[in-house]
Design a protein that fits this description.
This protein is an alpha/beta fold. The protein is about 35% helix and about 20% strand.
């Protein structure tokens, strides 16, 4: 969906350099979380809140400075002592292009209003990043764990710099791609932003162990009944070439695959599903993905940490999920626990959309650990 053009406005000189892929000069370097633009969003407020859009500096997984976009919803009324605690939101798969940005509709769109309103009602400010490359220059490196974590953590820093009523304590929550980002954030939060306190992380139906099963794909994969799988693979491959531009992805693609990956860079989720209809993963691939450097590059970009967690983590998983496979989440949780992470694992008799059932537990978990 379209967004106000003012949200794309960045300093001209810096934006031009980034758009051309040129290095940003030292004089232009800004601290992580430094705000570039801050714009009120009248008419976009969730009930009981004000809304603004911010563009801010963060880093990709190669430690290159990049810009990211976020929407900030702040409860109306008097903040508690210490400021409003923050819910950092990591959103679900939406697509990789600017047109796929949508967090500023959380407060108004019928399908999205209940994403933010329950947290506002529970006394949280809501900071929703679009990640790097959605609504800002470049394409989005889908499932790039380090880049996702940087964008989430730095969105909290940026929001606090423009809204003094926000606390230094926050929690993070997301589903699917957002669940992947939530786990990555939880492992990196203290190291990246020691001035902040991550009190808890709640990952719903997280995309896990992508590096374990995507390399199993090859020309032999038959057509599958749902176009989503081709869409997800197209996004993963497109994200990989954004995250690691020196990697020769074309060596693994057929002309059909190259065209699909090109479209993945520009089409949002539902349009990409339509585009993928009738095209199998096997038709995309010239050779198996378990060859050459592909497995190592994929692992470097997408794999989630299993150690380094300083905050308690709640993982919510639908037992009938055909997108974020339960057995892979089981493995991620088992490995995290084996490395000493404090993980609560809840199962639900549902599929991928576990968010609605998990929400009350997420809010209770956040409140408990903020108080602790």
């Amino acid at each position: 969906m379209s967004m106000p053009s003012i949200r794309r406005v960045v300093p001209l000189a810096i934006g031009s350099l980034l758009a051309l892929g040129l290095p940003v000069p030292a004089w232009a370097a800004q601290p992580d979380g430094a705000v570039i633009t801050s714009t009120p969003l009248p008419g976009k407020e969730a009930p009981g809140s004000t809304a603004l859009s911010i563009t801010y500096w963060t880093d990709d997984s190669l430690d290159q400075p990049r810009q990211a976009l976020a929407t900030v919803y702040v409860p109306t009324g008097t903040p508690p002592a210490g400021g409003w605690p923050i819910l950092a939101n990591a959103h679900v798969t939406a697509g990789l292009a600017d047109a796929c940005a949508y967090t500023d509709d959380y407060g108004t769109a019928a399908a999205d209003v209940n994403v933010v309103t329950p947290w506002i009602n529970a006394g949280f400010a809501f900071v929703a990043t679009e990640y790097i490359g959605i609504g800002t220059e470049g394409s989005h490196a889908y499932l790039d764990a380090d880049a996702e974590a940087n964008a989430v953590i730095d969105s909290v820093r940026a929001a606090r710099s423009v809204v003094p009523a926000l606390s230094s304590s926050y929690v993070v929550n997301g589903i699917s791609q957002g669940g992947h980002a939530t786990i990555a954030t939880a492992a990196k939060a203290k190291e990246r932003a020691p001035e902040l306190r991550l009190a808890a992380a709640m990952a719903d139906a997280p995309a896990t162990k992508v590096e374990g099963y995507i390399p199993l794909a090859g020309p032999y994969i038959p057509p599958l009944p749902a176009p989503d799988y081709t869409t997800y693979v197209s996004y993963i491959l497109a994200g990989l070439e954004t995250a690691r531009p020196d990697f020769d992805l074309d060596a693994h693609l057929t002309p059909v695959g190259r065209a699909l990956v090109d479209d993945a860079h520009r089409l949002c989720y539902f349009d990409m599903n339509t585009r993928s209809q009738g095209t199998s993963i096997g038709q995309m691939l010239a050779k198996p993905l378990n060859t050459g450097q592909f497995p190592a590059v994929l692992r470097d970009v997408t794999s989630l940490p299993v150690s380094g967690f300083d905050a308690p983590v709640l993982v919510n998983q639908g037992r009938f999920d055909l997108t974020a496979f339960p057995f892979l989440t089981d493995l991620q949780v088992t490995q995290m626990r084996a490395h000493g992470a404090d993980v609560t694992y809840r199962h639900y008799a549902t599929g991928h959309n576990v968010w609605a059932q998990a929400l009350p537990n997420n809010i209770a978990f956040a409140r408990k650990h903020l108080a602790g």
